[in-house]
Design brief:
Distance between the termini of chain B: 61 Å
Low-confidence stretches of chain B: 648-661
Largest sheet of chain B: 6 strands, antiparallel
Oligomer: heterodimer
Structural class of chain B: alpha+beta
Low-confidence stretches of chain A: 126-137, 150-155
Shape of chain A: elongated
Strand order of the largest sheet of chain A: 2-4-5-7-6
Number of strands of chain A: 7
Radius of gyration of chain B: 27 Å
Largest interface: A-B, 50 and 64 residues
Distance between the termini of chain A: 85 Å
Chain lengths: 155, 661
């Protein structure tokens, strides 16, 4: 390999490395703005001003007696609690089938300065992991059908 | 009894790998024909043992033999036969057993198909595959043993496989396709190791390598697409890709595999990029192991990581060993892979290939950072975070548009140095097609900036793809051949390049469909009483009633919804909530009306005690073209594997045909 060729090769390698570095920086430099935090109501309160505007997945239980449905049929208010702190959530989502008082939920959204947590994504919390239900969790088909029938007939 | 037979077969496989690995390496080093012949036989025996072990497990699954631990954990008497059969890959232990079968199949295929012309490398290649086989047979024999006897008393029935997997037929083919892609990447890796150990990269290495790289890449493409399609049809959120860690895990090796396929072309044509190609191939394999670790260890928070088990650390260990071995091997031997001197230019086809590689690796790096960031953040700072979609989109949207542009510019450019006028003509010639693309996009989809840009670049790339792909056929037609005949003989003579342009066509279709579907989705949701209406775009969805129905293995709560447009009844959609005894909450099962223009997607989210239904409707344009594009890509890769017929052979066949007629 002649000296001139070698120099050219080095030049190409260096250019590629710099281009790659710049692209990598552009690609990953904004990661901090795009994080979604998994917080409980206590952690959300502790975060203070930092919490406003951040993308948060708030997890906790729906506080008993806190569900209020607005007249428009879509908006709903309820409180999410972890036993210590409580956050009022305003949801625009159609609640999933299992949604009720006392159930675990994850709501994704942001806290606005008035202290309301606004969300359009409401999930009933469940294990990511699939497992066979333990003692007392395994429902028979009869029980499932019965629960569905009740929903049907009381309507 | 079944347990014993299965365990015995797995141990036989383990033993074969333990003997085969040193034998094949030593045989490769000594260039011993006898050792090589024995390595081949052992490769077939390994595949046989794995096939037999998988058949024993299938037998146990079909006959509901709950004395086998895996059957006790995923089997159920109420499960239909086809679901019982595919339960093999519905949970961790079974899928690792299936992995063993696929690895055995690939090892045997290398031994059988590379009988000639690859002898310099075959010993090392098989040795590496046996070494990988050793790890997986160890997993199947020990930590992830599916054949453990069930502790007494043996249950009379089981819970059945994960309901999410039972819920749709796509789940039958998505995992095998993905496994064929993932496991298949072991073969190019083994060949890269062989090249480094042998210290040379000749044509007898490169020619087989391309095919062994194309096959798993094609399966991986299909597997990823089927996963997206499954997620769209089953999970009920109306999308097909969410940059979920598990999706990313399958996407990472795909990116480097595509890069390697392209750099291998440069290596073949120009004799350069040898070390780079080897690095890409090794990275691809390491990323498949990383992906398996991420999805199987439970370290990432994902909707798909349905199995957690103690094998996570073992995978991490294996990844570490493979990584260190690869780096050491590269450091010691990479200088043996000297590039041939060549006059490479930047504004030339090889320059486009190089840029393509740079972009693909940058996307890979971004996705890798985004995927690993939450794990590192939790380990270092103890915070639970996930990386949002905008992080990925900001990088990948321009990057993929860049790739699309290169798909147009690269093939238009000549190899090597060319004079300015030629380059200018080659690059300006397709510009009218870009204008047509933009105009079409504006006409059909309005003034969405992303779609206009995609339309322009796609028009450019499509023009070049057709121009280049049809060039041999056109020149034949000009010399007097009938067009269909010119087309078929040009395909027969150069199936690889025409296959590659077919792949590009599929890529353009898929990219455009993704751009349209991601930008123009509309949705609408409401709680409706029976007789009520949900409106979306030009559709009126009339909710008639909700009803519950009992099936052997589940209860189905179904909403009947009439679909009307312009006062005409188009059909009925029945989205449902499926309840399985083993799940505490119902699975949302959407109903989809698929069309070539757009899909109407309807989910039933809840039924309240008053009989009102929570409905969500989504209209997504062009989504079907994503799947169509991928099928075209897969067809193109299949064409790439066809052996080209030389002019002489074609002439002989032609003569024979005339003689018989």
């Amino acid at each position: 390999m002649s000296l001139e060729r070698k120099r050219r090769r080095i030049l190409v390698v260096v250019t590629v490395l710099i281009a790659g570095g710049v692209m990598a920086y552009l690609a990953t430099g904004n990661i901090g703005d795009n994080l979604v935090y998994y917080w409980s109501p206590t952690e959300l309160k502790e975060a203070g001003d930092k919490a406003f505007g951040a993308n948060v997945r708030l997890g906790g239980l729906v506080a008993p007696g806190s569900i209020e449905r607005q007249a428009d049929g879509m908006t709903m208010r309820f409180a999410v609690t972890d036993g210590e702190q409580q956050i009022t959530v305003q949801s625009q989502a159609v609640p999933p089938a299992m949604f009720r008082e006392g159930i675990g939920v994850v709501v994704e959204g942001t806290l606005d300065p008035s202290g309301h947590f606004r969300t359009e994504r409401l999930l009933v919390k469940h294990d990511n992991e699939y497992r066979a239900p333990g003692e007392g969790e395994y429902r028979s088909m009869e029980e499932i059908m019965k629960s569905l029938q009740i929903e049907e007939t009381t309507g | 009894m079944t347990s014993l037979v299965g365990q015995g077969l797995v141990l036989v496989g383990l033993l074969i790998c333990a003997v085969g690995a040193p034998l094949a390496f030593a045989g490769g080093r000594a260039r011993s024909a006898a050792a090589l012949a024995w390595s081949r036989r052992l490769a077939l025996a390994f595949a046989g043992a794995m096939l037999a072990a998988n058949l024993v497990m299938e037998y146990a699954l079909i006959t509901h033999d709950f004395s086998v631990s895996y059957v006790a954990s995923v089997g159920s008497r109420a499960t239909p036969l086809h679901i019982a059969i595919v339960s093999l890959w519905s949970s961790l232990e079974g899928s690792i057993l299936f992995w063993g079968l696929v690895l055995g199949g690939f090892t045997a295929a290398v031994a059988v198909l590379q009988r000639r012309g690859h002898d310099d490398y075959l010993g090392y290649t098989l040795g590496t595959l046996f070494a990988i086989g050793l790890f997986f047979s160890f997993l199947i024999a020990g930590p992830a043993n599916p054949f453990r006897p069930t502790p007494l008393p043996i249950p009379l029935d089981g819970p059945g496989p994960n309901p999410l997997l039972q819920n749709h037929l796509l789940m039958i083919i998505h995992p095998p396709a993905l496994y064929l892609g993932y496991v298949g990447m072991s073969v190019p890796f083994a060949m890269a190791v062989a090249a480094l150990l042998r210290g040379q990269l000749g044509p007898t290495w490169l020619r087989p390598l391309r095919n062994w790289l194309i096959v798993p890449t094609s399966f991986l493409t299909l597997g990823i697409m089927l996963g997206g399609w499954w997620s769209y049809e089953v999970l009920g959120w109306g999308g097909y890709w969410a940059w979920d860690p598990v999706e990313n895990a399958s996407f990472l090796p795909w990116l480097t595999a595509i890069a390697a396929l392209h750099s291998a072309v440069v290596m073949q044509r120009r004799g350069t990029l040898k070390a780079w190609t080897v690095i890409l191939i090794m990275t691809t394999f390491l990323l498949t192991i990383l992906g398996t670790f991420l999805t199987r260890s439970g370290v990432v928070n994902s909707v798909h990581s349905f199995t957690q088990s103690p094998i996570g650390p073992l995978f991490l260990g294996f990844l570490g060993v493979a990584l260190v071995a690869s780096v050491v091997l590269l450091a010691l031997r990479v200088d043996t892979l000297v590039s041939e001197p060549s006059e490479d230019a930047i504004v030339a086809r090889e320059g486009a290939f190089l840029l393509n590689n740079l972009i693909l690796v940058t996307i890979m790096f971004t996705v890798l950072v985004g995927t690993l960031f939450p794990i590192i953040a939790e380990a270092v700072r103890g915070v639970k975070v996930s990386v949002g979609e905008p992080f990925y989109n900001r990088m990948s949207v321009p990057a993929f548009l860049g790739l699309l542009l290169l798909m147009g510019m690269g093939p238009a450019l000549p190899w090597g140095r060319a004079d300015r006028a030629t380059v200018r003509r080659a690059l300006l010639w397709p510009l009218p097609a870009a204008a047509v693309g933009t105009a079409l996009a504006a006409l059909l989809f309005g003034t969405n900036g992303y779609i206009l840009v995609t339309g322009a670049i796609a028009g450019y790339a499509l023009w070049v793809t057709f121009d280049q792909g049809l060039r041999p056929a056109r020149s034949r037609a000009r010399s007097g051949e009938a067009l269909p005949r010119a087309l078929s003989s040009s395909v027969k003579r150069s199936p690889r390049s025409i296959g590659a342009y077919l792949v590009h066509l599929g890529v353009v279709i898929t990219f455009v469909a993704i751009a349209i579907s991601a930008n123009l989705q509309s949705s609408s949701e409401a709680v409706v009483a029976p007789g009520g209406v949900l409106e979306i775009d030009e559709y009126r969805l009339v909710f008639e009633r909700a009803a519950a129905e009992r099936q052997p293995h589940r209860a189905v709560q179904k909403a009947t919804v009439r679909v009307e447009r312009d006062g005409k009844l188009l059909g009925v959609l029945e989205p449902s909530l499926n309840q399985y005894p083993t799940m505490r909450e119902p699975i949302i099962t959407p109903a989809v009306r698929t069309g070539l223009g757009h899909d109407l997607y309807l989910t039933l989210m809840s039924v309240d005690p008053e009989g009102r239904a929570g409905l969500r409707a989504i209209v997504t344009p062009a989504v079907a073209w994503i799947w169509i594009g991928v099928f075209i890509m897969v067809a193109g890769t299949a064409l790439c594997l066809v052996r080209p017929r030389t002019g002489l052979a074609t002439a002989a066949v032609g003569a024979a045909q005339t003689a018989t007629s």
